[in-house]
Write a structure and sequence with these properties.
Rossmann fold; elongated; UspA; Universal_stress_UspA; Nucleotide-binding universal stress protein, UspA family
Length: about 280
């Protein structure tokens, strides 16, 4: 992970996501791109100066980015880390996807807080939009202002319906190697036994996990998948969650469950969403 993109709105939540990103690649060479996106609906931080609105927003964006860069360089003395800032006008998710493509970003890290009570139950609208739009790199969401904790136990939730390869699993294995983490694979028991394709995919996954401490678990299907996952996270004291996002995946099904069923999935740990490699 040599290039990490971190969007910011200059909130403490966004800065906390940046600080987490820095800690995850501690002592590793990495360039961080700190991005602020603004549009005509972005509130001005100061009184109107008589300038063109767009120009004033641009000026405030650049000043805010300068302040964030100064702060993170003070908080992160790691000489292997480089910080660059980007100020853009437009729509966040599309700009993030464009930067990911042009700069070959390895990871997007975002602070997660919904702008309404309903959104906060699972993932904020900006995060969900980014996950659905960015197809070329993983997206890591950081819950509001949690302290950084080196991940000791990483949960990888899967249904074994898709094959695994080195590229798909790289962000998961990178973090496990970086922190000596145990990888706990969770499968929700929607069927009595795995079919031959699931069995083959599980075997491939095991091969990749052999260099790491690992365990495999079957969880019963409760009223909804969110409850099954949340129960697993609590029982094993998981401090980092990872899933692969593809059509009809567990993640897609969880996000489409009715809001009342997703209440239990109010995560308080980092959540890594890995795009399908297809």
């Amino acid at each position: 992970m040599e290039k990490i993109l971190v969007p910011t709105d200059f909130s403490s939540n966004a800065y906390n996501a940046l600080f987490h990103a820095v800690q995850l690649v501690k002592n590793k060479p990495c360039t961080f791109f700190i991005l602020n996106v603004h549009d005509e609906f972005t509130p001005l931080l100061s009184k109107s100066t008589g300038k063109d609105l767009i120009q004033q927003l641009k000026d405030e964006s650049q000043e805010g980015l300068k302040a964030v860069k100064h702060r993170i360089k003070r908080d992160d003395p790691d000489s292997k880390h480089v910080f660059k800032t980007i100020s853009e006008y437009g729509e966040l998710t599309h700009i993030v996807a464009d930067i990911v493509d042009k700069k070959e970003i390895d990871l997007v890290v975002m602070g997660n807080t919904g702008c309404s009570e309903i959104e906060a139950i699972f993932l904020g609208s900006n995060v969900l939009g980014t996950i659905s739009t960015v197809k070329k790199c993983p997206v890591l969401t950081i819950p509001k202002e949690i302290d950084f904790v080196p991940p000791k136990q990483i949960a990888f939730v899967t249904d074994y319906h898709r094959p695994y390869d080195a590229g798909l699993l790289h962000p998961l294995l990178f973090l496990a190697k970086q922190y000596g983490s145990k990888i706990c694979v969770m499968h929700i028991n929607e069927e009595e036994v795995l079919d031959k394709y699931q069995t083959m995919n599980k075997s491939i996954l095991l091969d990749y996990l052999l260099p790491f401490e690992n365990s495999f678990h079957w969880m019963p299907l409760f009223k909804n998948k969110a409850n099954s996952i949340t129960t697993f996270l609590k029982e094993l004291e998981i401090d980092f969650l990872a899933m692969v996002n593809y059509e009809h995946s567990i993640l897609e099904r969880v996000t489409r469950e009715p809001v009342i069923k997703r209440v239990a999935f109010n995560l308080d740990i980092p959540f890594l969403v890995i795009p399908d490699s297809d």
